[in-house]
Write a structure and sequence with these properties.
The complex is a heterohexamer, with three copies of chain A (321 residues) and three copies of chain D (100 residues).
Chain A lengths: L1 H10 L2 H14 L8 H23 L4 H29 L4 H12 L3 H13 L8 H22 L7 H9 L2 H21 L3 H6 L1 H20 L2 H29 L4 H12 L5 H9 L5 H31 L2
Helix pairs in contact in A: 1-15, 2-11, 3-9, 3-11, 4-5, 4-7, 4-12, 5-7, 5-15, 6-13, 6-15, 7-8, 7-9, 7-13, 7-14, 8-14, 11-15, 12-13, 12-15, 13-15
Chain D lengths: L2 E12 L3 H10 L5 E9 L7 H4 L2 E8 L1 H15 L5 E11 L6
Antiparallel strand pairs in D: 1-3, 1-4, 2-3
Classes of the chains: A mainly alpha (321), D alpha+beta (100).
Bound molecules: adenosine monophosphate (AMP) (3 copies) and sodium ion (3 copies).
One sodium ion binds next to helix 5 of chain A.
Amino acid sequence: MENLGLLAANLLSPIILAFVLGVLAALLRSDLRLPEGLYDALSIYLLLAIGLKGGVELNQTPPGEFVGPALLTLLLGVLTPMIAYNVLRRLGRFDRVNASAIAAHYGSVSAVTFIVAITFGSMTGQEPEGFMPALVAILEVPAIVVALMIAFTREKRVGSWRGALHEVLAGRSVVLLAGGLIIGVLVGPSGFEPVAPFFASGFQGALALFLLELGIVAARRLTDLRKVGAFLLAFGILLPIFHGVLAVWLGGFVGLSLAGSAVFGAMVSSASYIAAPAAVRIALPEANPTYYLTASLGITFPFNVTLGIPLYYAVAGWLYV
Amino acid sequence: MENLGLLAANLLSPIILAFVLGVLAALLRSDLRLPEGLYDALSIYLLLAIGLKGGVELNQTPPGEFVGPALLTLLLGVLTPMIAYNVLRRLGRFDRVNASAIAAHYGSVSAVTFIVAITFGSMTGQEPEGFMPALVAILEVPAIVVALMIAFTREKRVGSWRGALHEVLAGRSVVLLAGGLIIGVLVGPSGFEPVAPFFASGFQGALALFLLELGIVAARRLTDLRKVGAFLLAFGILLPIFHGVLAVWLGGFVGLSLAGSAVFGAMVSSASYIAAPAAVRIALPEANPTYYLTASLGITFPFNVTLGIPLYYAVAGWLYV
Amino acid sequence: MENLGLLAANLLSPIILAFVLGVLAALLRSDLRLPEGLYDALSIYLLLAIGLKGGVELNQTPPGEFVGPALLTLLLGVLTPMIAYNVLRRLGRFDRVNASAIAAHYGSVSAVTFIVAITFGSMTGQEPEGFMPALVAILEVPAIVVALMIAFTREKRVGSWRGALHEVLAGRSVVLLAGGLIIGVLVGPSGFEPVAPFFASGFQGALALFLLELGIVAARRLTDLRKVGAFLLAFGILLPIFHGVLAVWLGGFVGLSLAGSAVFGAMVSSASYIAAPAAVRIALPEANPTYYLTASLGITFPFNVTLGIPLYYAVAGWLYV
Amino acid sequence: MKTTTLKLVTIVSERILEDRLLRELGELGAKGYTLTQATGKGSRGVRASEWEGPDIRIETLVSPAVADAIVEHIADRYFEHYAVIVYLQEADVVRGEKYV
Amino acid sequence: MKTTTLKLVTIVSERILEDRLLRELGELGAKGYTLTQATGKGSRGVRASEWEGPDIRIETLVSPAVADAIVEHIADRYFEHYAVIVYLQEADVVRGEKYV
Amino acid sequence: MKTTTLKLVTIVSERILEDRLLRELGELGAKGYTLTQATGKGSRGVRASEWEGPDIRIETLVSPAVADAIVEHIADRYFEHYAVIVYLQEADVVRGEKYV
Ligand SMILES: Nc1ncnc2c1ncn2[C@@H]1O[C@H](COP(=O)(O)O)[C@@H](O)[C@H]1O
Ligand SMILES: Nc1ncnc2c1ncn2[C@@H]1O[C@H](COP(=O)(O)O)[C@@H](O)[C@H]1O
Ligand SMILES: Nc1ncnc2c1ncn2[C@@H]1O[C@H](COP(=O)(O)O)[C@@H](O)[C@H]1O
Ligand code: NA
Ligand code: NA
Ligand code: NA
């Protein structure tokens, strides 16, 4: 009942509806597109903003509180790509290259899914821990490294392993997220104040605009659904649920609040579609982009922002009573 | 007297002065140009924002109040292009194609003129009905359809009639305006709140920036004034006045407030320069763009945002005593 | 002591740290770049915003207070390029063309350095006079004219002298700054109010984003440091200090407040890297861009925004006791 | 390295024709295309980029037969009323058989 | 379909020359041009796009005579001090008489 | 005006290869290049510009020898797994000796 309330609250937020509008616009073959510059601008703004806000909060957090969640994040960053890989190999019968390519995406994290989860929390009056963005930064990289190692341990590859690593570590999502975090920690609440109106107040509106574009992009992926087959479709929904519930459950043990572990679940369940694809394209060019892009962007992302996030909150609420 | 006050209030608003600055910059052959991405971004932002705000208001409006204005808008959407067409044919001696091409523009609506009219109202402390943006969405399409039908009923055309229709209906101005409206209606005031700072507070400043660019664009049109001749110049000023006053007057009968009917007058008098040109270019390629662009963008738009809007407010004030 | 406090306050502001982050991102060869459109958009926004705010303040300033500073600015706009030219010729042994090219940059002003100085003031609770932006507009042009005249008085040049002049006067920085000023003066505080959230609240955050990009750009210049040699390195730090201290000192005589003369010092010491390079490239194509760009963007700008500005405030504080 | 000589057809037109041109190129047998944004000036004067965006510049590598078909099509479909220019060149394409 | 063989002159230069080059092309007899934004690297090193924007790439279809005039003009006006490159190709232009 | 005939090598590829291609072009002897942003369609279908940005279009004027080296290199390094197309044309370059 109240869970249905959660679901409605999420589906009726301007942010999700903007995503839906984007999907519809694409299906109507509308000429509506965000100019590429705006798309980049918004992603830069959003990543820097969550970094900054996370840093400011971290500046106020006793280290003790943060250690546990940080280590757990690291652990799941190593574990989840392995789970994904084995599911894809054994159940999905994917060849090694494509299996590790997809695993890299599902081990890593989608910053936007994270932001939507945060926003959902504050909409429903449940504030997660302020240091969550720091966990996103921690979660982004390891999974990609692990998945690529799985692929490279076997026969020599054509792709560039070091090139891929640089692509991830110096990639703009890590730089902005980590950079924002450090700045936030250094300046603290008082230093953040003058830039707050720009980075805090404008945040959710900018996110709505960004999701409008993501909707357009995701809709184009939908046409590829047939190509990827039923297994990947199921995989793109069930694995996130498994990863998500696992993370929510473990979140309790490291002292995360209800909202905190719900957001943590959303993070872990999400599939990267910016950092991972770029790295994989360089390291494993023979992997088929249609698989990993359609799964992460066409299946898992829409599922998470609409049904997944409320689900993780519901599970958290249920585990925390 | 007090009307002069209205006029000054309008001419001395940052928004209009930004437009003037743009015109001057262009005449000075300055290298000042808004990057194309920003121009698109601002128009997307502005259309979505008025859609959202209109929807939120509509969510609060008893249907009864809305039906009358909606039907009147529909009526004028059919009537005004016919008026324009006949004036252009009989008095202006325009051939059928160019007459219907121009008529499509003057029957449809310029979103920016509408926004300036709204802004002018709030600046002078007169709030029009909140549902006005819904009327813009209603007014945009029919006129274009009517005008194109006039052209297509006669001999077979080279242009694509269905292509044009799709261009209008799936065009971004309709999608964003209508989409924003629906989202606004669904989420209501409480749901809109988190995104309000972005879409509400920033609105007028963004509009100023947008008008800066429109000024630059309009100034380039001025050089074409000679080409279009005296008739179109007079047409571009007198027809909007006629349409505007007509709309202000009829607005009273359907229960619009003073400010409401003034804004309604501005809407109806305005000439489209985004949706209509694209549709006309596809449906009536043999029509001469210099005519309809110069008239709508080089004559009617500058007239309306400077003198027209205060005039419609003055007329409304005069009719409402 | 308290000066160290000033320094720390500056270095730990999000704005400066964003600049540092940009530098680091570039050194890490990150793919982080602001889309060109965003870079342009931000500079347009920032220039128009300071113009507007300056104009609104000017609207409230008794002419008497403004005349003195304005004349002093004009004087220094003529004097500083001559100082720079002679230092470069006599001590630096630069040929006439390169000497005047560089002199044009150091006589003119960097709007961003000015903005950072203003921001630094308000962060440390010291508000400079509101009309300072008007002085920036006055300072920008004369130095470039003077420096080019030095070059053109001798042998006939290949470059276009009139082309260069137009480039400066109709260049977007002058148009936006002067245009914003005039609009601000005309509309006054009440007229500015509706657009204030956009132009005032968002300002510092936008500045942080802009400095992120400037950091990336400046970092690329660093690789040219070797090419320009030790003299230009020293010149790029010592001349600004001299110009800055001179301006702070003279600022007192024309009645500028402590913060006012500190900001004035930052203005005068700064080197242009938008208006001047464009003009010089047209008027003196045979001058080597590596010299004047590296000096102004790679040396003086980073020095001023990090160490220079706190220094000028410290000097002002010291002179004003 | 073996190369095949193909026709490089370059089309510059107002952006409003983008969707139609690309679809029709495919129907006429082009296996692919490369599109860049452009602005330009011609007999009709500067394109009014404020209302339809800049011009588009389409390049497609095709067999001579397909090239002729494209030229024919554009000539009698768009030349009269739209701003469009078309020109042909030869190009030695690596792995060219892939594109015919 | 009848085509005319014209010279395709391609000019890549730093953006600051845009206005002057376009005006002068017209004066030298070019009937039109197509301009695209570009970045590039040459003997002078990467263009400092932070202060003058990226390079511009201008294509103009002209008669051989006009082509020579353009080359002459650019060579002695801009080669020495500006970053600019010019090259000529043949192109079979549909409706080509329109452009000479 | 004296011109030198060089090879104009045009490469269109997905953007992710940008840095590597430009570096390797230099190593193979290209003295410069001009790069424009592009989008396109080919046998692999539309480039997924949402995750790697649009395609890039690289033009480089080089000697025939360097042109062959470039073609060889790209063919055996990138053709199999990446979206890339390469074609050669002749161009008469003003001041061409500067580029060989
Ligand atoms: N002589 C020319 N050389 C290169 N491009 C041209 C030429 N003439 C026209 N164009 C391009 O073709 C487009 C349409 O030309 P037009 O149909 O003559 O207005 C223009 O916008 C230019 O981009
Ligand atoms: N070999 C080349 N091939 C293609 N484009 C070049 C070449 N050399 C230079 N360019 C272009 O011409 C511009 C100016 O070159 P430069 O004058 O040598 O610095 C560069 O920015 C490139 O865009
Ligand atoms: N026939 C063609 N003509 C022009 N460009 C092409 C053609 N085929 C492919 N391209 C370009 O080369 C890129 C890669 O093609 P592909 O490797 O076939 O997917 C595409 O994105 C297009 O930009
Ligand atoms: Na994950
Ligand atoms: Na109308
Ligand atoms: Na200075």
